[in-house]
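Consider the tokenized backbone below.
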């Protein structure tokens, strides 16, 4: 596996691959890799000729009181894991190169898409996400980019950005990878205490409560959301940010459940923010 730190070298490598008619698959990450990331790389290896994985802890998507400084970083382990799944290139740019002195440009989606759910609680987050992913798309030049469903709102936002800005890249969303007890894999799970780790699978259980209600015929959104919140409210040291049922593409809220829907939860457990979701296709 090749390690590239220079933006110019990465761009040149990608241009050469495109000249050779190769399909570039891209997996953007913030490092501290786990099986969820590796599942994206495995899929990319099946579908692409050259697989690039970026590791960049993006400062612009963290708020002032968030965990940028504490976010787990372990490049040595990340390299080892990527070698096991045969990634072709690890792109590890320096922050000073990505955001040089006097950098003033951003990419931002207007409207409510980035202001709902996580965007309500993290108002600058998605501007940081769309800006860095747009920059990475321009450097790596992928035809396919792979993301995990755990970050469902991010996937919706990035698909919108790619379409609106005519990026010649397909944004592909793959299923959430979970622990045996249902907890969605996340780099932030490392923050959890032993007791919090024991409690954390309740997020998934609350999602299953919602899914079961809908599968049994419940179509009233407020009743389903109330049931999720009731399940979560029993957990010590947990603060619910949202437990919502929304349209899976527009993230619009409503009163009646139908079509492709996203059931999504965000909580603060102790000091750790956790998110999870399920996607369902519901007949009227």
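A designed sequence for it:
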């Amino acid at each position: 596996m090749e390690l590239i730190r220079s933006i110019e070298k990465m761009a040149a490598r990608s241009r050469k691959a495109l000249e050779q008619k190769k399909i570039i698959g891209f997996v953007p990450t913030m490092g501290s890799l786990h099986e969820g990331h590796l599942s994206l790389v495995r899929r990319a290896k099946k579908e692409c000729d050259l697989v690039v994985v970026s590791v960049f802890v993006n400062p612009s998507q963290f708020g002032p009181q968030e965990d940028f400084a504490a976010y787990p970083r372990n490049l040595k382990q990340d390299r080892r894991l990527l070698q096991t799944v045969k990634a072709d290139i690890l792109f590890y740019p320096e922050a000073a190169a990505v955001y040089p002195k006097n950098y003033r440009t951003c990419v931002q989606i207007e409207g409510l898409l980035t202001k709902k759910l996580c965007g309500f609680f993290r108002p600058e987050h998605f501007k940081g996400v769309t800006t860095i992913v747009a920059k990475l798309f321009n450097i790596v030049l992928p035809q396919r980019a792979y993301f995990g469903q755990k970050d469902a709102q991010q996937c919706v936002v990035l698909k919108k950005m790619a379409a609106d800005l005519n990026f010649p890249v397909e944004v592909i969303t793959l299923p959430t990878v979970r622990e045996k007890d249902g907890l969605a894999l996340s780099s932030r799970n490392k923050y959890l205490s032993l007791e919090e780790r024991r409690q954390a699978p309740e997020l998934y259980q609350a999602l299953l409560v919602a899914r079961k209600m809908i599968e049994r015929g419940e179509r009233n959104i407020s009743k389903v959301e109330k049931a999720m919140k009731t399940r979560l409210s029993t957990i010590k040291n947990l603060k619910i940010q949202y437990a919502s049922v929304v349209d899976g593409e527009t993230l619009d809220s409503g009163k009646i459940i139908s079509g492709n829907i996203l059931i999504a939860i965000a909580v603060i457990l102790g000091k750790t923010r956790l998110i999870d979701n399920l996607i369902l296709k519901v007949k009227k």
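Residues 187-275 form a domain with the Pantoate--beta-alanine Ligase; Chain: A,domain 2 fold (CATH 3.30.1300.10).
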